[in-house]
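yo, Ubiquinone biosynthesis O-methyltransferase is done. seq:
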Amino acid sequence: MNRNDNIDAGEIARFSAMADIWWDRNGEFKALHDINPVRLAYVCDRVDLNGKQVLDVGCGGGLLSEGLAAAGGRVTGIDMVEASLMLARAHTRAGGLPIDYRQTTAESLAEEEPGRYDVVVCMELIEHVPRPASILDACGRLVKSGGDVFFATVNRTWLSWLLVIVAAEHVMGIVRKGTHAYRKLVRPEELKQWGQAAGLHFENISGLRYIPLGGYAALCRSTMMNYLMHFKKRTTP
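structure:
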């Protein structure tokens, strides 16, 4: 598969323009900084990362990659925005974490390294690509038999449209306008179906509550807005 098959040029341009502010905790990625400890804890509560081969799909500037590495994972981070990867490499060098950052897609890497990774995480990416099911298929091929795959995304509901798009992007301005397109948001039942089609067994879903004022983030029962999902690769006989 051509690695450009599942790329939105507009999304690449948007995140390229924002690449230099990835590590600005009070900038336009503040929300990701606020929810990152919750995302990391969701993974670490379900998998012991120590010594594991971990792949971060859509790693951006390396926020989650660094947390996964600090938790003991042997991390590879992939993204298609070269400017973000350059910043991620520089930040990682400064912190002394051994993370391998590569400019490639999950689909291309799945052809090169099928079944290499113990843990695959893909957070806040599938709502930014033309064919999200293709990402799940690739993650299913990348993970080892019996391994774990984690996703995080935004549900396609009236509440997420109101709060994530209208309020966050257009009223409060805490997220750059155009970051999210409602039609590209993914419902949990869609994500679960794509995962099962990719040979992944559904393990868990949890909602994520985020209150920008004060930076409060925590897991919750409601999946009406943000949510995380955990799969396991079916063990082959």
